[in-house]
Design a protein that fits this description.
The complex is a heterodimer of chains A (about 280) and B (about 260).
Chain A lengths: L19 H10 L2 H17 L2 H6 L3 H13 L2 H20 L2 H10 L1 H14 L8 H8 L3 H25 L3 H9 L4 H39 L4 H10 L3 H29 L9
Helix pairs in contact in A: 4-13, 5-9, 5-11, 5-12, 6-7, 6-9, 8-9, 9-11, 10-11, 11-12, 11-13, 12-13
Chain B lengths: L3 E10 L9 E11 L4 E5 L6 H9 L6 E6 L2 E2 L7 E4 L11 H11 L4 H14 L15 H14 L4 E5 L7 H17 L7 E6 L2 H7 L2 E5 L6 E6 L11 H21 L1
The chains are: A mainly alpha (about 280), B alpha/beta (about 260).
């Protein structure tokens, strides 16, 4: 037996071990331009702009102070929590798109009936629903969740359908000739094989939903990060606006990383699939 | 103990477009594979040999004629005719162990019996120690071993193999052919099945088969039905092997000239 050959694949040769200091320096070097830009920003804001314009572009040091204020008072946390809660509730509702997508990908009749409806609704941006949704739900959580729901729903749906339709036909055949029933094929083969793509859909969906969330909160909420930055605008707190924007970006990135890591942890085999 | 017979099987595919001519893939193919016989279907690519295997498995059905296993017409796919695919078709989310276990679970075997069968088949294909690997962690040759073990484990009446070694590199292919030959020579009656192998390799066919069906080029017809009586394990360098190889190559070459 020549097993044992080719088992070392995947072990990439490590680059020559550099000293700790050299590595830290390498990391720091990437931040050089950013540091320079921040310094220029600070200088321009403090020395070049007059006090009126400075209100519109506060220096980084003041922004950090504002960030500390918002964090220590718990205000930032409260808004972030409200936003995340809306995103989560909307996601729970939107995950109905997974069974719908599987049904559309697998059963022709379901696809035939639903495809036209979905294709009609899909191109409408979630934000275009804001006016109607305010009339339907008023201002508050439900309206926000509805907009986010729309943002999350379609990416998951489309990816699930693609995942199901893209299954290697021989996998289905293999399962058939090993004695699997139609139900077992659907449950044990189709759903499993589509999982990596479903996870991709969830990642994209949460991203789109997060964008929609901020927009929805801008116009129809009394809390949340979108509300925070819009509210800060009315009192000309540009520093709060910028802190809010940065938080929105940071949390969006964090969400994406969490799903990515979860996917890797739960589907260790999937790297073998996305060739 | 199962035999398989192909009786006057033709397969016609409708053209891609409505006004295309229908394509005749197989034309009146008949042969019989006896109990425990290893039969190769040999032919150029596009001669319909894979189509024939697909119909034996029950994934498709003949346009005319019929295929019988133990005198009963082939219906839907079942574990009684398990298939080894060229691209392995292993379930990527299952470990080696779980891939082999799948068919046994579908048969409703209790876990205790399953484990024993799985262990035996992992040993048979020489994958001890790799039970918990996922397919993407295996080489092509090892994947095909898993696929063979998975197909054998359900204890089919007939084992169908569609160019199982074609995707492997030359070295691995030779190794797998040799091992398959040894497996057949050992002839443990419990493990020995009626087998059909589709291939375009003359060497592979002679190395493994009791019977070789040579198909013509499009549409596939039976050009020759050759019984191979060489002793096992077979020696590629023996004069008898070379003689048979020359004969078959002549048959196939003949076919090629026709075409030009």
């Amino acid at each position: 037996m020549t097993t044992g050959v080719s088992m070392t694949a995947g072990v990439t040769p490590k680059p020559r071990p550099a000293g700790l200091l050299a590595r830290a320096f390498g990391k720091l070097r990437r931040l050089a331009l950013m540091t320079v830009l921040l310094c220029i920003w600070e200088y321009v804001s403090l020395r070049v702009l007059d006090s009126t314009s400075r209100t519109l572009l506060p220096p980084p040091t003041l922004i950090f102070t504002a960030a500390w204020e918002l964090i220590s008072s718990g205000e930032l946390f409260r808004h972030a929590r409200d936003s995340l809660k809306r995103e989560l509730v909307a996601f729970v509702w939107a995950s109905i798109s997974i069974p719908i997508g599987i049904a559309m990908g697998w059963f022709r009749i379901v696809d035939e009936q639903l495809d036209a409806i979905m294709e009609m609704l899909r191109p409408i941006p979630p934000l275009a629903w804001i006016p109607l949704s305010i009339l339907w739900f008023g201002i508050g959580d439900e309206q926000n969740q509805f907009i986010i729901f729309l943002g999350i729903f379609f990416p998951i749906l489309l990816n699930t359908i693609n995942g199901v339709k893209g299954i290697e036909p021989n996998l289905i055949r293999a399962a058939r000739c090993l004695g699997a029933s139609e139900f077992q094929i659907l449950w044990r083969i189709v759903v499993k094989a589509a999982l990596p793509q479903i996870v991709t859909g969830i990642r994209i969906g949460l991203g789109v939903g997060w964008m929609a969330l901020v927009a929805a909160e801008l116009v129809g909420a009394n809390s949340g990060l979108g509300f925070l930055i819009n509210d800060a605008r009315t009192v000309l707190r540009t520093d709060y606006i910028i802190v809010g924007m940065a938080s929105i970006g940071f949390i969006g990135l964090l969400l994406d990383q969490i799903i990515r890591q979860l996917g890797r942890r739960l589907l260790p085999w999937s790297r073998g699939m996305d060739r | 103990m199962s035999h398989l017979s192909v009786e006057n099987v033709s397969k016609i595919y409708p053209g891609h477009n409505a006004d295309d001519e229908p394509v005749l893939a197989l034309d009146d193919v008949s042969f019989r594979v006896e109990d425990h016989e290893f039969c190769s279907v040999l032919g150029h690519s596009g001669c319909g040999k894979t189509t024939l295997l697909t119909m034996m498995a029950g994934f498709e059905h003949p346009s005319m004629g019929r295929i019988l296993v133990d005198d009963k017409p082939v219906g839907k796919p079942t574990w009684q005719r398990s298939v080894v695919f060229q691209d392995y078709a292993l379930f990527p989310w299952m470990t080696v162990h779980d891939n082999i276990s799948f068919g046994l679970e579908m048969k409703g075997l209790p876990a205790v019996d399953r484990e024993e069968i799985i262990r035996r088949h992992i040993e048979l294909v020489g994958l001890d120690g790799f039970e918990n690997r996922y397919p993407h962690q295996l080489s092509g040759g090892m994947k095909q071993r898993v696929s063979i073990a998975r197909a054998l484990a359900v204890d089919p009446k007939v084992l169908l193999m569609d160019e199982p070694f074609a995707a492997l590199d030359a070295q691995n292919r030779a190794l797998m052919q040799e091992e398959m030959g040894r497996l057949l020579a050992n002839a443990d009656p419990v493990l020995r099945k009626t087998m059909v192998l589709v291939t375009h390799s003359i060497d592979e066919a002679i190395l493994l088969s009791d019977r070789i069906i040579v198909l013509t080029r499009r549409p596939g017809r039976v050009k020759a039905n050759i019984e191979v009586r060489l002793p096992r394990p077979r020696d590629e360098d023996s004069p008898d092997f070379a003689k048979l190889k020359k004969k078959i190559r002549g048959l196939i070459h003949d076919e090629f000239e026709h075409d030009i």
